[in-house]
Design goal:
It contains two helices and 29 strands. By secondary structure, the protein is mainly beta. It starts with 6 loop residues before the first helix and ends in a 7-residue tail after the last helix.
Length: 414
């Protein structure tokens, strides 16, 4: 089947709209996840040589990240993209580089297109890239400076990230296939775009006049809307779903005393949820001082990382759902042999991607990407009309994406 046909994702959206399929029940305390070790591009490696963090996941269960390639050169790492619900295959999943020795994949859309950063030479700067099956890895360039990074891509192939200007500042950018990056910062100050949904809404962080970073939401109005904080000075928006719900982290205005007082000042920063109007909602922590939300799916499930020891910066990955925050280490089998350390992505099936340490002294405790899959009894959607508009827009966006991708072949966009 051509990758430009509607495919399983589009069929799934349509079926969900008309109520012919069920979705997993939202997470609750005590539920279990199965865990898949996604492995490494260097499958015989042990310890740090096996380092292969996972960062992004699409609705098909494909995962992207990076992996060290050689035990003799730990600075040589490549971006990977797995097959759906599968471990890394070193033969097929290595995405290569822009000519240098390293690359990292940060996000993937439902067409399998990947974005991230890569260098063109061993000691050169990193550049934002767009990778597809048709064209391989493309350098998206900068805003006139020396480096850039692509953080997210939606189903229309639109990309956002951060790029250096000729003045040496890093600004949030938007890329729509025109061949050039659009600077989203109309006034001075640093900024970064961290995610984009299928409606083209963008979130990230931007310096305000006082020099602090605040989370922003960018819509078709053309202005960066300051979302504020939880009472403190700074914050960042990390992700947005197709309903315009935003998550990230923001200072609360409080401070905490760390294990090492030399590390102060230590502001308390908590994960937040923004519904699209009103103020930020504090999602709390796992018992420690800080938390950070990294992703949200279209059913409002949030993942991130949170402190779980009072006065310490030690963190664990969390799931926030139905008003409850849970340590993901408590939701996997007790004999899994894993310590989960970070959660960076969640798809609409509730699958979670992140990075953890395998408790195997014989292999010197390798750090690998993991894929968590909910072990849940399915339940029908109570009110499918609630999600009709968003999913219809997503399906229509896929159609438009198909058309724009086909038109963009001549421009080397896909």
């Amino acid at each position: 089947m051509s990758k430009y046909t509607l495919g399983a994702t589009g069929i799934g959206l349509i079926a969900l709209i008309i109520g012919e399929v069920t979705i997993p029940q939202q997470a609750a305390a005590g539920e279990l996840y199965s865990i898949t070790n996604l492995g490494s591009l260097n499958p015989t490696a042990t310890g740090f040589d096996a380092y292969s963090p996972g960062y992004g996941i699409n609705n098909a269960g494909q995962v992207v990240g990076s992996s060290i390639l050689s035990s003799t050169d730990v600075f040589r790492s490549h971006a990977f993209r797995t097959a759906p619900n599968s471990a890394i295959n070193p033969t097929t999943d290595d995405l290569g580089t822009l000519g240098g020795n390293s690359s990292t994949g940060y996000a993937i859309n439902d067409f399998g297109q990947v974005v991230g950063e890569s260098n063109k030479s061993v000691y050169g700067s990193d550049y934002a890239f767009l990778w597809s099956d048709a064209t391989g890895m493309q350098n998206l360039g900068t805003l006139g400076g020396e480096s850039s990074v692509a953080n997210a891509i939606n189903n229309l192939g639109q990309v956002v990230g951060s790029a250096e200007t000729k003045e040496g500042e890093f600004h949030a950018f938007f890329y729509s296939g025109s061949g050039v990056l659009q600077d989203l910062t109309t006034v001075g100050g640093l900024s970064s775009a961290n995610d984009i949904n299928d409606s083209g809404q963008i979130v990230g962080s931007k310096q305000i006049q006082l020099g602090q970073n605040h989370p922003f939401l960018y819509s078709s109005s053309g202005a960066l809307q300051d979302l504020g904080t939880l009472g403190g000075e700074e914050g960042v928006a990390s992700a947005i779903n197709n309903f315009g719900q935003v998550v990230g982290s923001a200072d609360t205005g409080a401070t905490f005393e760390p294990d090492d007082p030399k590390e102060c000042p230590c502001n308390v920063s908590h994960a937040f949820f923004y519904s699209g109007s009103g103020t930020l909602q504090d999602l709390g922590t796992l018992g420690g001082p800080n938390s950070d939300a990294t992703d949200i799916n279209d059913f409002g499930q949030v993942v991130g990382n949170a402190g779980y020891i009072k006065g310490s910066k030690v963190t664990a990955p969390f799931l926030y759902s139905n008003g409850k925050i849970s340590n993901l280490n408590d939701l996997i089998p007790a004999n899994s042999g894993w310590v989960l350390e970070n959660a960076d992505g969640i798809n609409n099936s509730g699958q979670i991607v992140g990075t953890g340490t395998i408790q195997d002294p014989g292999r010197n405790y390798p750090v690998h990407a993991f894929l968590l899959t909910p072990v849940l009894k399915p339940t029908s959607v109570p009110e499918p009309s609630i999600i009709f508009g968003s999913l219809t827009a997503s399906a229509f966006g896929i159609f438009l994406g198909k058309k724009s991708k086909q038109q963009g072949k001549a421009k080397g966009l896909v």
